[in-house]
Amino acid sequence: MCPSFAWILDGHVKNGGDVIAGTLPVEELGVSAPDDKTFVIELEYPQSYFLSLIGSCGQFTPVRQDKVEEYGKDYAATADKMVTCGPFTMVSSANRLYVFEKNPNYWNADAIHFDRIEMNIIDNGDTQLAMYEQGELDYVQIPTAQVPNYDDRDQEFMNGSLDWVYINCDADYVSNQNLRLALNYAIDRTTYNMLANSGTFQGWGNPVMPAVDGVNGTYGEEFQPEGYPLTEDLTKAQEYLQAAMTELGVSDPSEITIEFSTTDAETNEKIAEVLQEMWQNNLGITVNIKQVTYNELYSNLFPVSEFQVGYSGWSPDYADPYTYLELFISGNVYNYSQYSNSEFDDLMAQSRETTDATERLQILAQAEQILIDTGAVVPLQVRTGHYLIDDDVTGVNFYFSGYNIDLVYGDCASTE
After folding, report:
1. How many CB atoms are closer than 10 A to CB 28?
2. What are the alphabetically sorted keywords of the record (predicted)?
């Protein structure tokens, strides 16, 4: 498993955390192969979402040890240096064109309709669109700027990614809970989405995406607490601001200066400017934008919490609220906010101990409520994917965790 992703074993696979920390040998990891066709995984606690986790994360895909050792760093670099057991096998990967053919040995081969799939790697979104319109492609993702031009033709789905603003809970000013709440209530998330993303995403005021699994429906339908409003609540924002000023010992909001860190991508500059204007106009505070390279932000600033507030987000590793909430557990490797709340941590621990699905999600909803009540993060929007698919292509599914597009049981009328 990739070292940067090994953390996901902690709390999921038995002894995963201790093996990662080096306090137990890898032989103590809760995995075994009692025979040639059986693989056993022991879990730290009951996990209803575990199949979603291993199905969504490529890091859990089994590989043949003998082939990995034979090819070394070249393993899977080309079609002839990989061994797979899925519905399709890669037959070539030259000139940025990946070609897959139906695997006759797949366990459910009779249900697979596509005989061949060609995947073109094309960097320019407008070029992709032009090729689709000319009939050279059957499927294409619409670039964000072009989405309004295809409102009557595109297919839309939540891709699971939540955009938010991390708040360093140990930093000057924003360590104050009331100020963090003021920042949350001073944002018009609907207007933000229109200005920053041409209205192509969905404004959202919760730290958990609503479409993750519930018991009989979605978590959003059955359990999710009410989050921050999609339109600003300036009355509440001012109330929290005044309380923060009293606690911080400042007499004028202009004395409060916040540095907003983001990457140097042009789209992120626009995002930062929209939020800067909302916070400065609605609260009267000063917001300075700091743009750095992607590597600087995610390798140097976020990991050591050298920021006040910073634009980021999270894409789910599996279809469960826990994938978002665990980021705020004290000591989590991705807890860039340095958020620490003992009641929240206790609830997260309780959710791992119960085997009752309803009780578990009720506990996670309570934990989410604490994040909202304490202003742990500034949720902004749920990202959505917009696609064009040829009318002859059917049976293609989209998912918000793991691999967004599923072609396994697709079909094409023109091939019949």
Report:
1. 13
2. Signal, Transport
Cβ-based burial of 271 (10 A; exposed 0-12, middle 13-18, buried ≥19): buried
Distance in angstroms (rounded) separating the CA atoms of residues 309 and 297: 12
Please report the pLDDT score of residue 184 as a whole number.
Answer: 98
Q: How far apart are CA 396 and CA 209, in angstroms?
A: 23
DSSP 252-280: SGGG-EEEEEEES-HHHHHHHHHHHHHHH
> CATH assignment of 3-83, given 3.40.50.11540, 1.10.3720.10, 3.40.50.2000, 3.90.76.10?
3.90.76.10
Domain 109-157+385-415 superfamily per CATH: Periplasmic binding protein-like II (3.40.190.10)
- CA-CA distance, 159 to 379, in Å (whole number)? 16
Domain ranges of the chain: 3-83, 109-157+385-415, 158-383
Measured between its terminal Cα atoms, the distance across the chain in Å is 41
Give the per-residue pLDDT at 243. 98
Q: How far is CA 313 from CA 167, 232, 283, 382, 383, in A?
A: 12, 21, 24, 10, 10
Q: Which residues contact 177 (CB under 8 A, 6 or more apart)?
A: 374, 375
Specify whether the CB–CB gap between 381 and 199 falls below 8 A.
Answer: no
pLDDT value, residue 386: 82
Can you identify the CATH homologous superfamily of domain 158-383?
Answer: Dipeptide-binding Protein; Domain 3 (3.10.105.10)
Q: 410 is written with which tokens?
A: 């697709």
| CA distance linking residue 401 with residue 52, whole number of Å | 8
Q: For all residues of the chain together, what is the average pLDDT?
A: 90
pLDDT at 416: 46
Query: DSSP assignment, residue 297?
Result: I
pLDDT of residue 57: 66
Q: Which residues of the chain have pLDDT under 50?
A: 415-416
Q: Give the DSSP H or E segment for 189.
A: helix 189-197
Q: What is residue 153's predicted lDDT score, i.e. its pLDDT?
A: 73
Q: Tell me how far apart the alpha carbons of residues 76 and 72 are, in angstroms, rounded to a whole number.
A: 9
In the chain, DSSP finds a helix count (H) and a strand count (E) of 13, 16
